[in-house]
Amino acid sequence: MNAPLGRASLSILLAALAAGCGASPAGGGQAALGEFGVDLTAMDHTVRPGDDFYDFVNGAWEARTEIPADRSRVSSFGALDDLARARVKELVEHAVEGSQVDGEVRQIGDYYRAFMDEAAIEARGLTPLQGELASIAAIDDRTALAKVLGGTLRCDVDLLNATDWDTDRLFGLWVSPHLTKPEVNAPYLVQGGLGLPDRDYYLADGMAETRQAYTAYITQLLTLANVDGAAAKAPAIVALETTIAKVHATGEQTNDIKRGANFWSRAAFAEQAKGLDWPTWFAAAGLAGQDEFIVWQPAAVAGIAALVGSEDLATWRDYLTFHALDRAAPLLPKVFADAHFAFHGSTLAGIPQQAPRWKRALGAVDGALGMAVGKLYVERWFDAATKARAEAMVRDVLIAFGHRIDGVAWMSAATKVRAKKKLAGMQVALGYPASWRDYSGLDVRADDALGNAQRAGLFEYRRNLQKLGQAPDRGEWYMLPHEVNALNIPLENRLIFPAAILAAPFFDANADDAVNYGAIGAVIGHEISHSFDSSGALFDEEGRLADWWSKADFAAFEQATDRLAAQYDAYAPFPDLHINGKLTLGENIADVAGLATAIDAYHLSHGATGATIAGFTPDQRLLLGFAQVWRTKAREKSQRNQILTNVHAPGHYRAWTVRNQDAWYAAFGVQPDAKMYLAPEQRVRIW
């Protein structure tokens, strides 16, 4: 999940609280937010809770909050990320001081030092990129083109959150358990080739200004690199990418699991995706020995391959040159880095000021050596007691979700048995992995920032290739311990909750139990429910793509999810732009089910009634805690980008999940005259 909850690499939250009695804060100390875990000064009491629950809980906070100049948004997730980043900064700077020692501490220190050494980067100029640029310039036939394209393939995708990956490479590779044979890892080939965030940026009428800015940026970068004829080459590059965009699958199509289940032999590519010299491509990509691939967007792969065979070689050389420069720009001399930010940061996301270099350096270290940093993080900042409390709360929510399965009226008894079996077999990893990644083979140099990044990308790619044909490591983590997020992995029936999310407003040992259940409890329920949402429900208890529901069950499920999609389709953050209910459906299902399960879990462990605190009942505090975690203020360009490309609805509308909970109506006395009111028969109840 970026800031919002996600599901896959399927995309992404956690923390916890032991079951107990009473309404008092659990830790005995002062809550981080307000008297009991909710920032009451953030509330706007001029708004009725039934008219806009988000504004009721967060309106004053949003009115007084300014977005820092180097950011596209601020949020609860961002605040926790700031905390984690401050802690990581301390660890990394200590590694720099101690980088005379061998091992991962030295690698961390040297990587950070190289990124921060702007003088060395200026002195090197384009030299670190010359090898790649020379190989591109030498392309003189389709075989040479295929070799370069295969040689630049990398593992950098998040398949079930398909708009999150870096799409500028022509294809992307993802290595994970096979869809129908989860006992072995398989390669998933996915569409790419775009420099803008999504196909709609090329095809929608309202994006003409952005396309013009992109053309100008391409011209600028090529000019800085002394490429002849940059002004003429840029429009041709955009035209090529526009043609690629036309064959791309949409986000909705990409999120359709069954649509992605296409099993191609290596030999089949030459027949089903003509135009690309596949044998050369496979050899260059290190995939010549792989017999089967899962092609997620077959029409796009075929369409892109045809373009490789038909488009002018000179245009392909220019295209590849630009993208090599664009990827490297943050680690090239300042004029390149500034141009990169001006377009990607300011034009696309509306961010007026680039983040300080140390923040960018920390992100780079995480990208290359994240698990090594994570090991230091948990040694310093994550304790066994917190982990135990998290495990206790997970058990509470799992029990409550099992009760919800029992109570579903539309599901047959036979399917419920399978659903309970899947729930019972679900593995939950908390805080950090049981074993740590080995970085000893990664060459990190204190004076070679771009070279470090190039070697790190190749190192990670080769690490993934080594997994092909092997049994999946069910203990591998796809998130960092200091990442503020959480993850459901349908192909493994497994959840991952990193350590860094265990802080206010998601979890606070000194906050009221009800608030913690509404915050992190709903997050835990959210991730559990992803195993039973519109995507997760397609996988059985072993992580196999299988039809384990009866047709009648699935028809009833889809009827309910269609109603939820329609509910979100009606939300219009901007007069000309509505939320896409189908694109965000999986996350919205998880929000509805997660909150409902958290309410049940609290009632199971604490009872349905309890003392008031500051005038708020337990259910009111739980619901306030839920809405508080979704506080977000975003720049318009960033918000529009999220609505167009992201599987998560904006935070404002995630807080509106309460409309579907009977407990919300009872807790706040919401009546039919309220703007958010839904009649009982209109409330979506899925789990």
Please give a structural write-up.
- With 687 residues, this protein is α/β, with parallel strands linked by helices.
- The longest helix has 25 residues, at 357-381.
- The two termini are 22 Å apart.
- Strand 3 (171-177) and strand 4 (185-191) form a beta hairpin.
- It folds into two domains: 7-21 and 30-86 and 381-437 and 470-682, Collagenase (Catalytic Domain) (3-Layer(aba) Sandwich), CATH 3.40.390; 126-331, Neutral endopeptidase , domain2 (Neutral endopeptidase, domain 2).
- Helix 8 packs across helix 9 (230-247) and helix 8 (208-224) packs antiparallel against helix 16 (334-349).
- The chain has helices at 53-64, 76-97, 104-116, 118-124, 130-137, 142-151, 200-203, 208-224, 230-247, 251-254, 257-260, 269-272, 278-285, 298-310, 313-328, 334-349, 357-381, 384-407, 413-424, 449-465, 513-529, 551-569, 585-606, 618-628, 636-645, 651-655, 662-668; strands spanning 7-8, 73-75, 171-177, 185-191, 263-265, 292-295, 427-431, 487-489, 494-498, 632-634.
Keywords:
alpha/beta; disordered N terminus; 687 residues; three-stranded mixed β-sheet; Collagenase (Catalytic Domain); 2 domains; globular; single chain; Neutral endopeptidase, domain 2; four-stranded mixed β-sheet; 6% strand
Please sum up the structure shown.
The protein has 687 residues and is an alpha/beta fold. It has helices spanning 53-64, 76-97, 104-116, 118-124, 130-137, 142-151, 200-203, 208-224, 230-247, 251-254, 257-260, 269-272, 278-285, 298-310, 313-328, 334-349, 357-381, 384-407, 413-424, 449-465, 513-529, 551-569, 585-606, 618-628, 636-645, 651-655, 662-668; strands at 7-8, 73-75, 171-177, 185-191, 263-265, 292-295, 427-431, 487-489, 494-498, 632-634.
